[in-house]
Design a protein that fits this description.
The structure is a homodimer of 504-residue chains.
Chain A (H helix, E strand, L loop, with lengths): L1 H9 L4 H4 L10 H10 L21 H11 L20 E3 L5 E4 L2 H4 L8 H8 L1 H8 L12 H7 L11 E5 L2 H21 L8 H8 L10 E5 L8 H6 L4 H4 L9 E2 L12 H21 L4 E6 L13 H13 L3 E5 L25 E4 L6 E5 L20 H16 L2 H22 L5 E4 L7 E4 L3 H10 L2 E2 L1 E3 L3 E4 L7 H16 L1
Parallel strand pairs in A: 2-12, 4-5, 4-6, 6-7, 7-8
Antiparallel strand pairs in A: 1-2, 3-9, 8-9, 10-11, 11-14, 13-14
Helix pairs in contact in A: 1-3, 1-16, 6-15, 7-15, 8-15, 13-14, 16-18
């Protein structure tokens, strides 16, 4: 298959156009391959056949939009102005008539395509409009059908072993809520169980932000991790200085994340040694750090930090160590969750016997929170884990519609299959353009693929001119984060455009 | 007016029914007063005439809902199950057919009534459905009309002197984003200006959560303050131990909040002395605290902490002190904002010459964030104040519709007028039931009214049986947080029911 692909990608002249018009029946392997991809049923029949680039980006209309917006909104991180009503499926439109294949998807947060018709139906339903205009304080006044919305939505896709959820509003929020649950669990154990009440000293010291009421406990995270940007989550984020500079932080420990060589299987032995080193250091920090960890948190694939992978063995090792030392194991699936890696949850790749204690989610779920199974993670009193909104039924309804769309089109399987196809295409490109694609990674991880590029920022910029919206991560990684509706014909198009960029 | 009211409230037999049916024209002051209230045009003509209480709450159907929900969701803080599609205006319905006058309004977060028809139109608009299904990463890919949505919505009601906004997702989030802006501003000054780059030492120490990169700075807050429950905001929250216990906190200072006597004007001299004491202690902490404050944050009326008021003089004093010591002044209007106090923003009552540096909002805005005016509060580089969603255009569109509804019906004025009417009715009740209503407060503050009750929790519970949904704050306060569409005839009904409770 790889060799066949290699032939195919050597001559990929106008594949995009062949999607709509039947290709002439010339029986070369190139064309056969092309037909294989183009013959698939598109999830979005009205998608454009190919990107349309009419102007430099930003074009004149976008420039006007940016000028006006700059007066009231920080536009220095602006990538491109979007016109969402004109966007469709995998394609993002701008005010100048440019329509780009979007493999960044709002920083990995659009799951099933722009203007997905099933989501549109859900958004127009009476349930949704009620949820928008009558937003409840869920902890106090939950709506009569909240159990039903949870059971047919968020909880339907709960990771194995975790049958409860606490809902929140963003990835940072989800992680901090999980940290709070971890601290309450740890202190309850230290106190002697759920039945033991707080001491007077705990009560008075908590009000002064002092120990023991505000305990000197910590969350252990990993170097280059990204877990959010609020004060607790930012204390566990170790991705880039720009994320952290000038913000006070907790004195919490960071363990080394394995610096693996890619492809992982080719360097299995070296990587195993590196992972063992990191596991040993993690264990040492759990035992010795002066603010003892109540939990460790890890991403299945470090995303913002540069798309860093480790083997299932490493993560199983973390589960063992945390179990051994009575520390909770939190898996941050904010970016990896909801199908992108070819499993619904990326940690399903690990073959854990014993599930994580908590799994956090956001982004493609379009709602956020943490799953848990152990009843001891429920605080012993009400109002300990609480806030006004405690999530959002409107976004929970949307996630339910997303889940139905994923099931209807078998999109997790699609992502696994398309991801493999894309990965093989990229392997081929990497062989031919070794200076452009280094450390290709994400094999067997759906479309969650990345590589290092010595001219990363230039490549991302050039891609726009070729009609591709693509993102980076870490210092030099190009990261692919297409939607779950990304198909082989989109992969062909992406590979073709990348080759053009590499040639330029 | 107060004496007239006193007469009126002595005999208030079936006012609720008189709203729809014209009252017989008997010319006593009692009836005149009643007619005055009942003759007003209702904002919700289809509202019930009065609460309907068919079963104890929870009734049999709600009990079933709670049993099912308890398996997947923490219901220990549940107050009542709501059926929102059947709720309307000021009335909240439950599955058992009970319909209660709601003066708690989802912890003060419903602005213009359940199932408000104008909001329904906004929720069904193509703009809204697009915003729901195509949620952007606003910092990278803002929609083409984002400036327009901001200018015709959130920014249209920006507090005087603050013409920019950073949007977020909840009150806690809004406050933490403001804290981050404050820390970056302070460190930039210490560093020598926006043009001075980070040092190597700052960069490396930030990645290790250590000073100077993660500086030993603080946010000063006040005793009994509530600013949220994430890690940074919780470090400034000092309301109740249950909010803080077992959660690690920053070593940040708390100043005393004036323990004023009510009514404020009656004890003006004593209160002034108390406020001066608190201002002096605030100034001392700013000068001496080992982690110097970059900002102080204060609520115009401490809400969760028990509805604690202070005079405009106190807040003007805070503005002076912060200006004097080059510390930012953040006003937390999460609960007080958007009309509830009879001004759009509660801090308008203070008559400040010099605006606050930042004003945070959420709840009734149905979206969240902080306003600011000074360009120096914009971090000197992109991606410093950033996250994936950075707010939510769907909720920004809803806030715009809320603002339009407020303007159309002059609801801030309504709240001021109704609030005065309600306050006078409560003054009258307090005279006649001095054991039930102590420390009545909120005069001239719209419907943002509270009092202390020695049997607070019992009163709140009894109120349900009389068809009123009402909340508490602090240890013993009954807090009224009706919506902006709360009118005099609702006030009459509330006063009548309260009297029945006090008699029971």
């Amino acid at each position: 298959m790889a060799s066949l692909l290699r032939t195919a990608s050597l001559a990929r002249p106008s594949i995009s156009r062949s999607i709509a018009r039947p290709a002439p029946r010339i029986f070369t392997s190139t064309i056969l391959q092309r037909n294989y991809a183009s013959a698939e049923r598109s999830f979005f029949p009205d998608e454009p056949e190919a990107p349309v680039v009419k102007t430099p980006i930003p074009g004149p209309k976008s420039t006007k939009v940016i000028e006006r917006l700059s007066k009231v909104f920080d536009t220095r991180s602006l990538n491109m102005v979007a016109e969402y009503p004109k966007s469709i499926g995998n394609y993002i439109a701008d005010p100048d008539g440019n329509v780009l294949l979007d493999v960044y998807a709002q920083i990995a947060s659009i799951p099933v395509g722009y203007n997905n018709p099933s989501l549109l139906l859900a958004a127009q339903s009476p349930e949704m409009t009620s949820a928008i205009i009558n937003r409840p304080a869920l902890g106090n006044f939950p709506q009569h059908d909240w159990a039903d919305i949870l059971e047919t939505g968020i909880l339907k896709v709960a990771p194995k072993g975790l049958n409860q959820v606490f809902t929140g509003q963003s990835g940072s929020d989800a992680n901090e809520l999980a940290y709070k649950a971890a601290f309450m669990w740890k202190r309850q154990q230290e106190r002697g169980g759920a039945g033991v009440d707080f001491s007077e000293q705990e009560i008075s010291s908590a009000m002064n932000n002092n120990s023991p009421g505000a305990p000197g406990l910590s969350i252990l995270s990993f170097r280059k991790a990204f877990h959010g940007r609020l004060f607790g989550s930012l204390s566990t984020t170790r991705s880039k200085p720009i994320h952290k500079l000038d913000i006070p932080a907790f004195d919490w420990p960071q363990a080394p994340f394995p610096a693996c060589k890619y492809p992982l299987d080719q360097y299995a032995e070296e990587n195993q040694a590196e992972e063992q080193r990191c596991l040993a250091e993690t264990e040492r920090l759990i035992k010795e750090w002066h603010n003892p960890p109540a939990a460790i948190i890890v991403e299945p694939i470090q995303s913002e930090g540069g798309d860093n992978h480790a083997s299932p063995n490493f993560f199983r090792g973390l589960r063992e160590i945390t179990r051994k030392h009575n520390v909770l194991f939190i898996v941050d699936e904010v970016q990896t969750g909801v199908g992108a890696t070819g499993k619904f949850w990326a940690h399903e790749h690990w073959g854990l016997q014993d599930p994580p204690d908590m799994v956090t989610f956001s982004k493609k779920a379009q709602t956020a929170g943490y799953y848990f199974g152990n009843n001891e993670l429920k605080p012993n009193k009400p109002y300990r884990q609480f806030n006004t909104w405690m999530g959002d039924p409107a976004r929970a309804l949307l996630f339910r519609a997303i889940i139905e769309e994923i099931e209807r089109h078998d999109l997790v399987r699609n992502t696994a299959v398309t991801g493999q196809y894309l990965y093989e295409g990229l392997e081929n490109l990497a062989e031919r353009y070794p200076k452009e694609i280094a450390n290709l990674r994400g094999k067997g991880q759906g479309t969650f693929i990345a590589w290092d590029s010595p001219r990363r920022d230039e490549v991302l910029k050039l891609a726009k001119g070729h009609g591709i919206n693509i993102g980076g991560s870490g210092e030099m990684a190009v990261r692919l984060r297409p939607m779950l509706i990304f198909q082989k014909h989109h992969a062909d198009l992406l590979l073709e455009k990348l080759e053009k960029i590499f040639k330029s």
